[in-house]
Amino acid sequence: MKNFIVIMALAAVFSRLDFDSAVLFLTGASSLEELDESTLQHYRDLSLRPLDINAAGRSRLLSSGLFNAFQVASLLDARARSGDILSYVELGLTDGFTPEYAEALKPFTRLVSQSPPGAPRKDKLHHDLMMRASARENDGHAYAAGLKYKASLGETAEFNWASRTTYSDQKLEPGTLSAAYYGRRWLGKVVLGHFSARFGQGLAMWSGFSMSHYSSVNSFRRNGTGFTPTASFTPEYCGVAADFNLGRLNAGAAYSFDGKLPMGYLSWCGRSFSAGVSGSSRSISVDFKLGLKNTGMFGELAWNGGPAALAGVIWTPAYASKYGLLLSWVDGVPEAAAGAGLKGFDAVAAISGRQFRAMARYAPEIAWGRLLFTPSLRLAAKKTDAWRIEGRGELKMTLGGWNLNSRLDIVRCKSLAWLANTEFGYTSERFRIWLRGTLFCVDKWDDRIYVYERDAPGNFNVPAYYGRGWNASLTGAWKPSRKHAVYLRLSYVEYPWMTEVKPSKAEVKLQYRLSL
Hints:
Elements: H1 2-13, H2 19-27, H3 37-48, E1 51-52, H4 58-63, H5 69-82, H6 88-92, H7 99-105, E2 109-110, E3 125-137, E4 141-153, E5 157-164, E6 176-182, E7 187-198, E8 226-229, E9 237-246, E10 249-256, E11 261-269, E12 273-280, E13 284-292, E14 295-303, E15 307-318, E16 321-330, E17 333-342, E18 345-352, E19 356-362, E20 366-368, E21 371-383, E22 387-399, E23 402-412, E24 416-427, E25 431-442, E26 449-450, E27 464-465, E28 467-478, E29 484-494, E30 505-515
Parallel strand pairs: 1-2
Antiparallel strand pairs: 3-4, 3-30, 4-5, 5-6, 6-7, 7-8, 7-9, 9-10, 10-11, 11-12, 12-13, 13-14, 14-15, 15-16, 16-17, 17-18, 18-19, 19-21, 20-21, 21-22, 22-23, 23-24, 24-25, 25-28, 26-27, 28-29, 29-30
């Protein structure tokens, strides 16, 4: 069995996941349309400035959202015993990790070995500046602009500033400002300015977006990041936060000037069991995680305007095989979900007093020499007031830097709706270009189809297609050097086959990134 794991780990070295696939694996989402702007921004920021696993402390590792408490404890123990982790093969064989998980971490992390065990590191100051401008013609002109700046001193300190205007709001605000210092030993971190708070399974304190449990077995269990600085354009809290390491104990407190809200938590993490209590002046919760051989159990009991509870178990009997069960009681509504995840296959079904949802997805990888085929079939059903049945077929073909992707969506709810697109692209180290064409026929708003669109880093683009028409878009990136990058997106949507007149929409986006 050990030799099999080693072989799988070595295979992972030669099959690096792309950004989209890695995000789906780590979040547990079955498609990028299920995520929100801040989540995609977070992973995009990590891809542009990857986390140094060998230099980051406990609080920094947890704040990244890439690891759970057990994995962080295992990483710190491995670094203390053997020094820096030198490869993703080694990371995949570390307790709490698998070769598949290590592969998914590649776009967002780096393994830098600069010092022998115990020797001090020299942190370097990095600057990242992004500026973007866009214009849209849709029965009138509209303009928008945005700016994001990040300064980081290795994994010791960071400063974030993000500000933007939108097509509907032209008022320029100071935006999001946050600064953080990550300590060593007893001091975890101190955060000033805007921050997020995520604890337990999200029943009491989980700021921002919280994905549903219907995507895959990986989405059943959440990993809280604690108090973390944020560069989101829509932050929830603004004030001061800090946490402290006291051996296996971890404690933290925060105060948000928005809403005059005090918050705090206390947690304990052992080799196979962790538990914590967290709360604010509005809520309180107790959560736990238990890791046994091939089995993980988790749960949370909370009061957040009313009682809420959640418990689940995930069983992993063999490599690339995972089964899960989740039970919850939130807002007085009981719910049960069950799922299975095998290599290339995911299925989840959930039923509550309000709705029924089910999803199954099959996506194998087929290699033929240098040509890689990735067909995908996704079926989903949802019933609240009425049934919504969704079918999606995708085919991706890759040959070196050349890519061809096709997709067909069919939806049946109020009526029959469909969408089809084809995308052709070329990617290299310094140049990327994608051309996409889309046809759609969606007569009812309840039948709308959401589609993730390629865009410049930091842009969230998941439009809802409604009406009868076509769309064409061109997305490109040019990196003349390590310091500079330019991104361009052109798109046009027209509705020529509708009985009611609907104005066309044209948009152009230009973005520049400076990295020093």
